[in-house]
Amino acid sequence: MKFQPVSHSWVALHPKPQGVIQFIGGAFFGTFWPMLFYRSLLQRLFNDGYTIVILPFNFTFDHYAESGFLIREQYEIMPELIRRAIFAGYEYQPYLSDKNFSWIGHSIGCKYIALLEALSALPLIGKPSDPNYSHNIEKLRNFIESIVISTAKKTDSQVKIDKKIKSILTDLLILINELEIKRQKTKRLIKYYIKREVNFQDLQDDIEISSIFIKNQASLLLAPVNTGLDSAIPKPLASIFIGLGFNVKPNPEETYALIKYGNLFNLMGLNSFKNDKLALSTAQWFEHDFKKPPRSFKEDLKGGHLRPLGIQFGNFAINFPDLKDNMPMIESIQKRYTEFESPVSQLFQRLEDK
Q1: Residues with Cβ < 8 Å from 252, sequence gap 6 or more?
Q2: Are strands 4-6 and 9-12 parallel, antiparallel or unpaired?
Q3: What pLDDT score was predicted for residue 346?
Q4: Which of 248, 256, 266 is nearest to 115 (CA)?
Q5: Where are the domains of the chain?
Q6: Which stretches of the chain drop beneath a pLDDT of 50?
Q7: Cα torsion for 115, 270, 15, 83, to the nearest 10°?
Q8: Fold category of 4-122+186-353 in CATH
Q9: Which positions ≥6 away from 150 have C-beta within 8 Å?
Q10: What is the pLDDT of residues 44-53, one digit of tens each?
């Protein structure tokens, strides 16, 4: 498994891919050398027959913007995978459809994936020339309004609420318009790269981008964390900033509301860990409040929040030291496969087969 830079990401092309896994790690580990910190897990997924795309974790308070970056990156990567696969003599047909693209996230990286899934439930807008365009904009505004009002504080003025609704609506309309343009551009690029193939006419029918977001794409969340500003900076400072009106966008309550109102996540799996206190409340919310995923798509594994981190050296794996998870720093790769990688791989395969 060899990673190469593509756009803002790192890609390991599989010679005979059955699909693409887009991976985004947690803070720090997903930013600096994720291909090293998550090496053992990514190697297993690659061995299962998937091209691996590591998307960078960018630290920001605007999680809407970061989620937008991730889906833009998918549009940049799709045609490039095809171009590079053709050049290398690899199979490339799975790259023609976005339904063969899937997501795995760890920690706060899961929040960005969850936002993309939630945004997939947004009302369709269409083009400004469409007769129902204004009506569709109003439906989108009502959707946003329901989220903002349901999560507003009692002290929030109507002016503040209206301003927030307008800001979110404006940002989403810009993003949706940009993604529609990128979707068409991506399709044109794909056709350009495959036009010299002898079965070009048949291949054209396989080109598909069914959603501008990630609807119909499987997602597996490893120790998902839905946190606010208080987890990004020291709590005393966070309290001051939040009191002044600064927080992550969307905040945890708004994120949960988006997920609930969208009510998708039918191709989602969740791996939690027995000694993980950081992701405990988020995992419990999915189980008790959202009631998804079903039991058959949920695994509770040994270890703590950093269990997904691991580097393989021969027959041994080096785990990232976490005093809270009681995992040895060095263990046999077979033991790690049995207790972590294999359950993750099997759960992901069940999602793919759903």
Answers
A1: 226, 227, 228
A2: antiparallel
A3: 97
A4: 256
A5: 4-122+186-353
A6: none
A7: 0
A8: Rossmann fold (3.40.50)
A9: 257
A10: 999 999 999 9
